[in-house]
Design goal:
With 560 residues, the chain is an alpha+beta fold. It contains 17 helices and 22 strands. Among the domains are: 139 residues, Nucleic acid-binding proteins (OB fold (Dihydrolipoamide Acetyltransferase, E2P), Beta Barrel); 58 residues, no CATH class. The strands form 5 sheets. The protein has an 8-stranded mixed sheet, sandwiched between helices. Strands 1-2-3-5-4 form a 5-stranded mixed beta barrel. Strands 19-20-21-22 form a 4-stranded antiparallel sheet, covered by helices on one side. A hairpin with a 4-residue loop joins β19 and β20.
Length: 560
């Protein structure tokens, strides 16, 4: 069907050329946008006309033709406006250009075309503000039709894969990305006012460090060496602190070769901020002030709604230790356990599973938190004082052995920010990174290696420093009410559109669904309940069930 439409439109392209009209114009100069006209002439009465000439351009969303009259809905970046075409007025205005201009407009334009028009302003008898057209120019002839219902595109996969169509037909999606731009601009503006400077650090790095994550690896042909896409900006920004900068940050892309879910995209945006002579308490204050300032600027309020949950961003935000939250939710005081085995047995008694990789009580505390506490933290909450085992770059707590001075900010059940009193002791830092390197050598693909140049920098002396990282995509999700991270990223990473399910298998003990696609790739979907697997087996259309109930709801890892 779309091929027939495309062929018809190609014929119209040729007809336009034969008439001496360029179907792909060079430029157009507008005097107004749709929203400006709607606001400026909001008080115009029905039937009233203003004798001014305006010029506007936009995409045709709908056409209604009635003999010698036509009404088009035109959309530009700011909104929509009706254009009102009367054959006599158009023929008069374009007599020297095209004596049959009105008929050619009717015959050779379609929904989806981009049109420039000039004319006066008139509110029709039915009350619709319109540009009363005297001249028009076809600026771009579209070859493919808009979705049948131009006011909405409901196929989620197509929305992400063809974001350009999504943006055309869903104005709320355009608003999301406008707000994203306002959020990032507001963050930079606030930090600039506080005396911070933004310095760019390498995206290609010889050592992947600054976070526990599996990196993407590439190869430099001339230098004949492996390079990594950065998994964090931390270690280079700290080098700048060593070099004498006292307030630095970078807002940019990070790359982690990990699973995809509604909360994770392998390519994502963060901001990392470092301040000399500060600690994690100072960074809590900065986080609170930064986010509330930006939210107030962008939304005009600190009372927001996210997926049906009311969230109050008004400071001060709650501050509570990870230990206290776990004890509050589970009744377990992990400081009372003498061995890891004893702690694991207690965790099993409160329904916590998947603890076979917990090598310390610190790791167990974090697992208890993630499984039992994290999703309950709806209101802004600073979770403070983490186990040293999961925080290799943080300074030891000044009064609590076994813990570090670290916080994470949780809102609507997910982490949004992460901060440390940064580790400045080069000997301690070396020991921790060497322990990480040992894990890496033992097969842990997410463990960090030893960055000798960074350790050398620390030996020159780094002042006391507070560090902060904020997930921009997750913050945008919160402030724009996006359920999935893919809705907050203009072009999220997607699997090949030609992938269809060839076979699947299920391991009940780990709740892992293994799916093989016809292009040879294999993905493991995590934490899939047995009931969902049973429904998949019985589904009349395995692909449809998979796309609807599994694909967007469970995290996954690529195996092949």
């Amino acid at each position: 069907m779309s091929e027939d439409i495309r062929a018809t439109r190609l014929e119209k392209v040729e007809q336009l050329k034969q008439l001496g009209m360029n179907p792909y114009a060079y430029r157009w100069e507008s005097t107004h946008h749709a929203a400006e006209l709607q606001e400026k002439y909001a008080d115009l009465s029905s039937g009233e006309e203003v004798d001014v000439e305006v010029a506007i351009a936009g995409r045709i969303l709908a056409r209604r033709v009635f003999g010698k009259l036509a009404f088009f809905t035109l959309q530009d970046e700011t909104g929509i406006i009706q254009i009102y075409l009367d054959k006599n007025k158009v023929q008069e205005g374009m007599a020297d250009i095209d004596p049959n201009a009105f008929d050619h407009l009717k015959q050779l334009t379609d929904a989806g075309d981009i049109l420039g028009v000039k004319g006066s302003i008139k509110r029709t008898e039915k009350g619709e503000l319109s540009v009363y057209v005297s001249q028009y120019t076809i600026l771009t002839k579209s070859l493919l039709p808009l979705p049948d219902k131009w006011h909405g595109l409901t196929d989620v996969e197509k929305r992400y894969r063809q974001r350009y169509v999504d943006l055309i037909v869903n104005p709320e999606v355009r608003q999301t990305f406008r707000r994203r731009a306002q959020i990032t601009a507001g963050i930079r503006r606030y930090l600039d006012q506080q005396g911070f400077i933004e310095i760019e650090t390498p995206v290609l790095q010889s050592e992947a460090g600054g976070a526990d994550a599996r990196p993407f690896i590439t190869y430099h042909n001339t230098l004949e060496m492996d390079l990594y896409l950065r998994i964090a900006t931390e270690l280079h920004l700290k080098r700048l602190i060593v070099g004498g900068f006292e307030k630095v940050f970078e807002l940019g892309r990070i790359f982690r070769n990990e699973g995809v879910s509604t909360r994770h995209n392998p390519e994502f945006t963060t901001i990392e901020i470092y301040q000399a002579y500060a600690d994690y308490n100072d960074m809590m204050a900065l986080t609170e002030a930064l986010i509330t300032t930006v939210a107030q600027e962008v939304l005009g309020t600190l009372q927001i709604s996210y997926q049906g949950e009311d969230v109050d961003l008004t400071p001060p935000w709650r501050r509570v230790t990870m230990h206290d939250l776990v004890q509050e939710k589970t009744g377990l005081d992990v400081t009372q356990f003498q061995t890891v085995e004893e702690a694991i047995a207690a965790a099993h008694s409160v329904g916590v599973e998947g603890l076979h990789e917990c090598k310390s009580i610190g790791h167990l505390l974090n697992e208890l938190f993630e499984q039992k506490v994290e999703e309950t933290l709806i209101q802004p909450t600073f979770v403070i004082d983490y186990p040293v085992e999961i925080s290799p770059l943080a300074k030891p707590h000044r009064s609590k052995p076994g813990l570090v001075e670290r916080f994470e900010l949780f809102m609507v059940g997910r982490e949004t920010a992460n901060s440390f009193s940064e580790l400045t002791d080069p000997i301690d830092q070396r020991q921790r990174l060497e322990a990480q390197a040992a894990r890496k050598a033992a097969g842990d693909l997410e463990a960090q290696g030893v960055d000798e140049d960074f350790l050398t920098a620390l030996e020159y002396g780094m002042p006391p420093t507070g560090g902060l990282g904020i997930g921009i995509d997750r913050l945008v999700m919160l402030l724009t009410d996006c359920a999935s991270i893919r809705d907050a990223i203009a072009f999220p990473l997607l699997k090949s559109s030609s992938s269809f399910i060839k076979a699947f298998d299920y391991k009940a003990e780990t709740q892992t669904l293994s799916v093989e696609f016809d292009n040879g790739s294999i993905y493991n979907y995590r934490d899939v309940p047995d009931g969902v697997y049973q429904c998949l087996k019985k589904a009349p259309s395995v692909g449809q069930f998979f796309n609807t109930y599994i694909k967007e709801n469970y995290g996954f890892d690529r195996v092949v």
